Amino acid sequence: MNAKALLCFTGLLIASPAAFAQAGLPDSIKVPDGHKVALETTGIGEITYECRDKANAAGQTEWTFVGPKAVLNDRSGKQVGTYFGPPATWQAKDGSKITGTQLAVAPSGAGNLPYQLVKANPAEGKGAMSGVSYIQRVALKGGVAPSTECTTANKGKQEVVKYQADYIFWAAN
Question: Does the pLDDT value for residue 101 go beyond 50?
């Protein structure tokens, strides 16, 4: 039995990081060629929404994204960083951190945040985030705006929604 068959047999099928992060994803959120996976994390946390006036729609209200707060764990479950905002910031335990500009989103399934591709700004500090060029948000669970009513009567009310997502960090080859 070869190693791949053995890994599959034991339930530990290990795909190459590039295949894991790109296969089956919408084209709009795929990382351009010439990049490799630098770090794979799972973000577990919450997103805060606030009932606010709808932009350019007098008298209407909507749940508005306020910001995320999550821990970033490596594939073994060990915390390696945090994710918070605004602005959206990914910070490694070594103190290095990045922000970025959203390039694209794509639907990921009912009740889940969309897939996302972010172009990273140069890292602050030296460490795990140094050299990161893109961040992908994939494997999403939850995080969408609350289903509770947002009206002028509860304007200003905040709701916290749990979510989980994989954040894949990419660097140039």
Answer: yes
Give the tens place of pLDDT for each residue, 136-150. Answer: 999 999 999 999 999
Taking the CA atoms of residue 140, residue 38, residue 99 and residue 90 in that order, the dihedral angle to the nearest 10 degrees is 60
Closest CA to 108 of 147, 140, 134, 65: 140
Interior CA angle at 74 toward 81 and 36, to 5°?
95
Q: Strand, coil or helix: what is 38?
A: strand
Q: CA nearest 169: which of 141, 136, 145?
A: 136
How does the average pLDDT of the chain come out, rounded? 88
**Whose structure tokens read 């669970």?**
141
DSSP label of 124: B
Q: Which of 39, 17, 170 is nearest to 93 (CA)?
A: 39
Distance CA 33, CA 40 (A): 18
Strand-pair partners of 81 = 72, 92
- pLDDT one-digit tens code per residue, 22-56: 878 999 999 999 999 999 999 999 999 999 999 88
The whole model's pTM is what? 0.85
